[in-house]
Amino acid sequence: MPEIPVVPAHWRFPAHPVSVPRARRAVADALPQDLRPRLTDELGLLTSELVTNAIRHGTGNRDDDLVELVLWPADGHYWLAVSDPAAHEDARTPAVAHPDAGCESGRGLVLVDHLAAAWTVRPRPVRGTSVIAGLPLHPSG
Questions:
Q1: Can you tell which superkingdom this protein's organism belongs to (predicted)?
Q2: Which residue, 124, 133, 2, 14, is CA-closest to 71?
């Protein structure tokens, strides 16, 4: 008999900065107790950066815009997908930037690139963009 997969955790938050700590807390609370000491900090940072980017760059500043998060374990990783509601013609593909030392922003995906074992950007089928990042369940080495 095949192993039944875990149902992914799923949330929608208003596309507003107050949602960043709420999203981080929700993701941390969804982790199994035995993984919290090792994954909470890194997954919290990934959540903060990706939700902040989705709010800042992937929303139309409308009151009804929502940022969607999905968290699931698969293939030895915990995967986090953060999706924004931007229309495809309005969306900018997220990419790692290399800001000058004096810049106050622009380092979010540098952190994601450093922390995640793998990450990618995928257009959503109808509207918006998802950034998906994975953290390994077991430390390498």
A1: Bacteria
A2: 133
